[in-house]
Amino acid sequence: MTLGYLLGGGVGAVPHGIELHRAFLLVRDLYDQISEWTGVPVEQMVAAGLSEKPTEARTVGMIREAAQALAVYELLGDAGVRPGAVGGLSLGAMTSSSIAGAVDRKVLLETLVMFGQYEEPAGRPAEALAVATIPVVEGIDGYCGRGAHGKVYQAGYFGPSADGSLAIHLLAGHLDALTALAVSHIPGRITILPGRSAAVHTPLRQHLRDNMASYVASMPIRTPLLPFYSCFEEKRLTTVDDVRDVFARNPVDPIDLTKVTAAMYADGVELGVIVGASIPAGLLGFPFPVVHVERPEDLEKAIATIYELGVDIAPAGSTT
């Protein structure tokens, strides 16, 4: 039985990893190293709030999410557990590339800082993100397009709800357009995400992709050592170009969690570890059983499940 690690996306407006940082010296040492590489103080990684300055908020938000994911990976590794496959969504896809051995950890974190510190062009309409929770039978097309208030795009698909009745999508676009869309539907159908001021995974972010293009083209990348999957293609990524494509496409292309999980399942993953807190427990349906690890108490439960099921926990090619 193959064990797959699954990393979610998003910029961490709420701090995650505080309990792990308090409980484990290994995690505190990791955070100290991440702080040295990125310039983000440890106190900001575990603090409750984010700066009102967009570049600082984006940078700290991404680093704190990546730090928690790497902390969970290290703690499970310290207990003798290593994944046989790894995949992720947006930020999680980029972080997964490091776990898969394709991108050096220091390079990954420095790249996230580069993305976070990007200065937005002046004079652009305010942007936002929203989660759309709609009946599966309805479809998403009616929620997207250009209207009197601006543009709305389908930026992502997270998959069906755990009971299969709802489809959960990510919308992104102009704030006024998303606000108008939200008030035109029943409460809870469209939820605008607080503190998310960039229409990620849409054509509105082409300027970021263009700005980062030369940096991404020169990033040192290796062939993945582990089976590696992203949210842009329903397949295993096997080449340097495949990995580079994840970083190049991330600002503009829509994301799809089901592409990650379907490809992992097709390649033999039978148990998933949801690494970190960016995919809420119990919300989504998956093609294989999953265990969530984000707090110290989750570690023992996950390790017990892995051993009880006879999962392969130290496959050839594991990264460190």
Describe the protein's topology.
Elements: E1 2-7, H1 18-23, H2 25-38, H3 42-45, H4 54-78, E2 85-88, H5 91-99, H6 105-116, E3 127-135, E4 145-147, E5 150-160, E6 166-174, H7 175-183, E7 190-192, H8 206-218, E8 228-229, H9 240-249, E9 255-256, H10 257-266, E10 269-275, E11 290-293, H11 296-308
Parallel strand pairs: 1-2, 1-10, 2-8, 5-9, 10-11
Antiparallel strand pairs: 3-6, 3-7, 4-5, 5-6
Helix pairs in contact: 2-4, 4-5, 4-6, 8-9
* Gross CATH architecture of the largest domain: 3-Layer(aba) Sandwich
Mean pLDDT level: 92
Helicity range: 25-40%
Number of strands: 11
Uncertain residue ranges: none
Terminal CA distance = 21 Å
Q: What would you note in describing this structure?
A:
This protein is α/β, with parallel strands linked by helices. The protein has 2 domains: 2-120 and 208-308, Malonyl-Coenzyme A Acyl Carrier Protein, domain 2 (3-Layer(aba) Sandwich); 127-197. The chain has 11 helices and 11 strands. The chain has helices spanning 18-23, 25-38, 42-45, 54-78, 91-99, 105-116, 175-183, 206-218, 240-249, 257-266, 296-308; strands at residues 2-7, 85-88, 127-135, 145-147, 150-160, 166-174, 190-192, 228-229, 255-256, 269-275, 290-293. A hairpin with a 2-residue loop joins strand 4 and strand 5 (150-160). Helix 4 packs parallel to helix 5. The chain is globular and about 55 Å long.
